[in-house]
Write a structure and sequence with these properties.
There is one protein chain. By secondary structure, this protein is mainly alpha-helical. It has one domain. Helix content is 61%, strand content 7%. The chain contains 10 helices and 7 strands. The strands form 3 sheets. Strands 1-6-7 form a 3-stranded mixed β-sheet. The chain has a two-stranded antiparallel sheet with strand order 2-3. A two-stranded antiparallel ribbon has the order 4-5. A hairpin with a 6-residue loop joins strand 6 and strand 7. Helix 3 runs antiparallel to helix 6.
Length: 310
């Protein structure tokens, strides 16, 4: 997989998003009133029979190819072979999909999926009359994706005899920009909406209701984009006192703190969260924050040991 081919695919993906997005953004701007921005973008770019192409899917593709190009640049500077990057990409891609899917099905909709086991692994939704519809993996949980990535990187490092913390430091930068793309995809899907708001930049998600709300997806997307630039800057400017794994710990603290705080202005994603003081996303973020603080502490004080994995 060459850089030119990847760049061409990425450019096509960005063009498709931007070309279709111009119409969508024009419609949004034309619906801005004094109280809120009316958001009624069709999440499907086109629909042919049982197949549809969604903005979310293009954002997902853009996230992976952007990540690949950034990692390729860093690997070349570190004189890492191309085959190592290609293998890492496969491991992380599979780990992300499996982890995010299982995370959603187990933590958010377990009552449904325990009776529809095939829908966990197949991108189809089956109806009572025996027909099916290609839906894609619409239920994906970021915390599950994080666990899937960590496990896949552990397996990768064990097989290819690489330092886990070195690879983790490389990946956190691209995970931040990938999170930005995914939240933009959520915005096009009119999902993960915020609580009611009277702020002038509130969104009315017309596919949901007619209530001005916090654009929580946009808040998160902007925060993750800023985190991407910060981590990239820190990666270039870091001093030798911070050992491999420190950047990984810093990432865990910052990203999941962002997630924890923004959850306060989100609507609960599932009914069982309505009576919880902290929602599921916040409870799942706490262990990651704690692990990040621990890593920042030990990786700042201990000498850098050449270990295979943790």
């Amino acid at each position: 997989m060459t850089t030119d081919v990847l760049q061409m695919i990425l450019d096509c993906s960005v063009f498709a998003v931007s070309h279709s997005g111009i119409i969508a953004v024009h419609n949004v701007i034309s619906n801005i009133d004094l109280l809120a921005i009316r958001w009624n973008v069709n999440p499907e770019i086109f629909d042919i029979g049982r197949f549809s192409l969604r903005y979310y899917s293009l954002c997902f593709v853009a996230a992976f190819f952007t990540s690949y190009l950034i990692l390729q640049h860093n690997f070349l500077k570190a004189h890492k072979p191309q085959r190592l990057l290609d293998a890492l990409t496969v491991y992380v891609f599979v780990g992300t999909i499996i982890g995010a899917r299982l995370g959603h099905c187990l933590f958010y909709e377990f009552d449904y999926y325990r009776h529809h086991l095939l829908e966990i692994i197949l991108p189809y939704k089956f109806s009572k009359d025996g027909t099916f519809q290609l839906t894609g993996y619409q239920g994906l949980a970021s915390h599950g994706g994080a666990v899937g990535i960590l496990l896949s990187v552990l397996l990768f490092c064990k097989k290819y005899r690489q330092s886990f913390f070195y690879m983790a430091d490389q990946l956190v930068i691209v995970v931040a920009i990938s999170s930005f793309f995914i939240r933009i995809g959520n915005l096009f899907n009119s999902e993960i909406i915020g609580r009611p708001s009277a702020l002038p930049w509130a969104f009315i998600f017309e596919r949901i209701d007619n209530v001005p709300r916090h654009p929580a997806q946009l808040y998160e997307a902007i925060a993750y984009l800023l985190l991407f630039f910060f981590l990239g800057y820190y990666y270039k400017m870091k001093t030798t006192k911070h050992k491999s794994g420190y950047l990984f710990g810093l990432f865990l603290v910052l990203l999941f703190s962002i997630r924890f705080l923004i959850e306060f202005i989100k609507e609960p994603q599932e009914a069982f969260e309505n009576n919880m003081d902290l929602d599921m996303g916040q409870w799942l973020s706490i262990p990651f924050i704690a692990i990040g603080i621990y890593l920042m502490y030990i990786k700042r004080l201990r000498p850098n040991k050449k270990t295979l994995i943790i």
